[in-house]
Write a structure and sequence with these properties.
Blueprint: H1 2-16, E1 59-62, H2 64-67, H3 75-82, E2 86-89, E3 96-99, E4 108-112, E5 115-116, E6 137-142, E7 156-161, E8 167-179, E9 183-193, E10 197-208, E11 213-215, E12 221-224, E13 230-234, E14 237-239, E15 245-257, E16 262-276, E17 290-308, E18 312-332, E19 338-361, E20 365-382, E21 387-389, E22 398-400, E23 404-420, E24 426-437, E25 440-441, E26 445-455, E27 460-471, H4 475-479, E28 491-506, E29 510-531, E30 537-558, E31 564-574, E32 577-579, E33 601-611, E34 614-623, E35 626-627, E36 639-640, E37 643-655, E38 659-668, E39 687-696, E40 702-703
Parallel strand pairs: 4-7
Antiparallel strand pairs: 1-6, 2-3, 4-5, 6-7, 8-9, 8-39, 8-40, 9-10, 10-15, 11-14, 12-13, 15-16, 16-17, 17-18, 18-19, 19-20, 20-23, 21-22, 23-24, 24-25, 24-26, 26-27, 27-28, 28-29, 29-30, 30-31, 30-32, 31-33, 33-34, 34-37, 35-36, 37-38, 38-39
Length: 705
């Protein structure tokens, strides 16, 4: 029944949903001075030259209307419902990672204002710790296209950035959110804009006991009669334990345009988080039996300078990231006292620098180059390791054995490209990248891109690209004690892309765009952590992976009458990701099978119906079955079934003389779906949120003309 209702809602959205949002220069959510949600559909230009920077690039762009939908969303939530890439979530307000095209989360590179923010320890990024209200521009670079941004993106890259608020005078916005499970979200933004200066301060604070209830299908309880005979059984309803969280994010931005071609920018982002690690659904402990908490303090800062002229540009950036992370696990001794089992502490310091330049020759050639460096200093240790006897010493002397490491590594990346557009139909691009991690250099990483306008009518463009790529092992892979393997080889492979896109429309009536892409990737020396005979896990280069498939995207916006707007966005991915390596033993059943936690099919759909100051939003996401084991066993613990997710919201804008009000009511998991993203990690059922936004009107708060 749930799926039938989902199909009905999806179909209805095609006819009654709307607001054009995939425009680069769309309104900034609730900062729009006009209380109406209806934005006229722009006319499609069929003769304009394509941006030379994007020749052959496979790119998905998310605008501010998607990013600033509501203050409770993280980037993990945005990517789940607006793209078809796989978002792996360990539960509400816990670790969330993304993976492109059948690869692992560590194969997805993430940049913020040009600085790579992947953890040098794990190689991945936690998207649950990135508030979507802190991001003004987000782009996904699929496969080979990631080479233009950074190396190591065997699956792709996520490019995040901020920008000036583009306002004059003072501006203020406050949003209060209240949700199920005693969840509170607060957002405050202060802006100031002048002729040359722009300042923005954003603050987000979120907290919740996070004690939602769920049906636990990992526990089956029996019902007995008076004679102790089993007469019935059931799956109990339990609550999420030890999952409370408190997150504070502060983002300060300062921009200056000198008026003579020089632009300066400063962005500083501070995070203070305390999150309980929820109990597994197979855990029988009570709340007071143990404490399981992860804390984090992170500061990211970037200072940038750009000098622009008519046909050339140079720029430089300097950045710094400091992260302190603590993980504490305590277990009850049964006498009211707690015993510390794990007291892990990690400190990461990253220094970043980059210089870049562009030079165009007429309207046919564009040359670009950049050089970036990241210096990582990492100390990770469990301070609660018990003293152990040292067999190398006589007399039974004891010493502490460190679990962790203290290491540093320099990562250098150089990039040059030449883009050539001999005619308005044909575009060609050649890019070369070379990287150094520590003392090891990659071979030159080439990437070739091409596109061709098949038809100006409908802007039908064919694209193709091919590239080589490498990813170095993480510091945990190499040095973690016990288990690190300093002899690991780099993961490497080739990727191929081909596709076609189109865009048609008529001003103030409709707009239709879409694309279909095929990709094929071969990755050798895939790194995986495996158990050893010594009782711990260790990474090894064991797999050869073949990932291939199809990605489809479409957008339809229709303006059937004045004050009405309908918009529908959909995406779909078919992603087989097959282990084609050699068997590790006669009992190895992983060869020829789909990689664990990689759905073969994924899809998303969003729809918006807008009428004057009213807006109705429907979001839908789908992931096919996933296997938890490389043998692809259909066992209770080896298989996670497919699931569908539906969210809706209703929004109303009110305009008064002194201020604008924004009211929004949202329902998440509309059909109360029982689902798991990760084995034994419960997810919440249907839940609700209410948001109230207040934007005072100041006489000088007018957009720049």
């Amino acid at each position: 029944m749930k799926h039938i209702l989902t199909i009905i809602l999806c179909t209805a959205s095609c006819f009654c949903y709307g607001q054009e949002r995939r425009q680069t220069e769309s309104r900034e959510g609730w900062w729009n001075d006009n209380p109406s949600f209806v934005v006229p559909i722009r006319e499609i230009g069929v003769t304009a030259r394509r941006p030379m920077k994007e020749i052959g690039v496979q790119k998905t762009r998310l605008d501010t209307l998607v990013l600033h939908e509501n203050i409770a969303l993280s980037m993990a939530d945005v990517l789940t419902f607006n793209t078809s890439i796989f978002v792996k979530q360990y539960g509400r307000a816990t670790l969330s990672t993304v993976a492109f095209r059948g690869t692992s989360p560590s194969h997805t590179q993430v940049t913020w204002n040009g600085m790579r923010i992947n953890s040098p320890m794990l190689g991945m990024t936690d998207f649950s710790m990135i508030p979507s209200y802190f991001i003004d521009d987000a782009s996904l670079l699929h496969g080979t296209s990631s080479v233009n941004e950074t190396g190591g993106g065997l699956g792709g890259a996520v490019k995040l950035s901020t920008r000036p608020a583009d306002r004059r005078g003072f501006g203020l916005q406050y949003v209060q959110g209240v949700g199920s499970f005693s969840t509170f979200d607060e957002f405050l933004r202060l802006t100031y804009g002048g002729d040359r200066w722009q300042s923005s301060t954003r603050v987000v604070y979120s907290s919740s006991p996070n004690d939602f209830r769920y049906r636990n299908y990992n526990k089956k309880l029996n019902v007995y009669d008076d004679d102790r005979n089993i007469v019935d059984s059931y799956y109990p309803v339990e609550r999420n334990k030890s999952g409370a969280y408190h997150d504070l994010h502060l983002l300060q931005e300062l921009y200056c345009n000198s008026g003579d071609g020089n632009r300066f920018g400063l962005q500083a982002w501070y995070v203070h988080s305390s999150r309980g690690v929820p109990m597994l659904s197979v855990d029988h402990k009570e709340d007071d039996d143990y404490s399981n908490v992860q804390r984090e303090q992170t500061l990211r800062g970037i200072l940038q300078w750009d000098h622009l002229r008519e046909n050339w540009k140079v720029g430089a950036k300097a950045g710094y990231i400091h992260t302190w992370m603590a993980y504490d696990f305590e277990k009850s001794l049964g006498n009211g006292n707690m015993a510390q089992m794990i007291r892990s502490r990690s400190r990461i310091d990253t220094f970043f620098g980059q210089v870049e330049g562009e030079y165009s020759v007429g309207d046919k050639w564009l040359f670009t180059a950049d050089l970036s460096v990241h210096q990582h200093l990492v100390e990770s240790v469990d301070k609660n390791v018990l003293p152990m006897k040292d067999p190398q010493q006589l007399g039974g002397n004891r010493k502490k054995v460190q679990v962790g490491y203290d290491q540093g590594r320099v990562e250098l990346s150089g990039y040059v490209s030449a883009k050539y557009q001999p005619t308005d139909r044909l575009g060609l691009s050649l890019a070369l990248r070379e990287e150094m991690f520590g003392d090891d250099w990659t071979p030159v990483i080439p990437a070739f891109f091409a596109d061709y306008v098949l038809s100006h009518r409908g802007r039908v463009v064919a694209k193709a690209s091919v590239s080589r790529n490498f990813r170095f092992p993480t510091l945990n892979d190499l040095y973690f004690l016990p288990g690190g393997n300093p002899d690991l080889r780099n993961e490497h492979g080739f990727s191929y892309d081909a596709g076609v896109s189109f865009e048609v429309g008529k001003k103030s009536i409709y707009k239709l765009s879409g694309s279909a892409n095929w990709f094929d990737s071969y990755i050798d020396d895939w790194i995986i952590w495996l158990p050893t005979t010594k009782g711990f896990f260790s990474p090894r280069n064991v797999k050869k992976v073949h990932a291939y498939g199809v990605e489809v995207k479409a957008n339809l916006a229709v303006q059937p009458a004045k004050d009405w707007l309908i918009d529908l966005n959909g995406s779909y991915s078919w992603t087989p990701s097959i282990n084609e390596g050699e068997k590790m033993s006669p009992a190895d059943q992983s060869v020829g099978k789909q990689l664990p936690y990689v759905p073969e099919h994924s899809a998303s759909l969003t729809g918006r119906l807008s009428w004057r100051s009213w807006a109705f939003l429907y979001k839908w996401a789908y992931y096919s079955e996933r296997f938890t084991m490389s043998s692809n066993d259909y066992t209770l613990t080896g298989h996670l079934p497919e699931y569908f997710m539906s969210n809706i919201s209703l929004e109303k804008g009110l305009s008064f003389k002194p201020l604008d009000l924004q009211l929004k009511f949202a329902v998440n998991n509309l059909f109360n779906e029982d689902y798991l993203s990760v084995l034994s990690r419960p997810m919440p059922g249907i839940n609700f949120e209410l948001f109230i936004g207040i934007t005072p009107k100041f006489d000088k708060n007018k957009k720049k003309q």
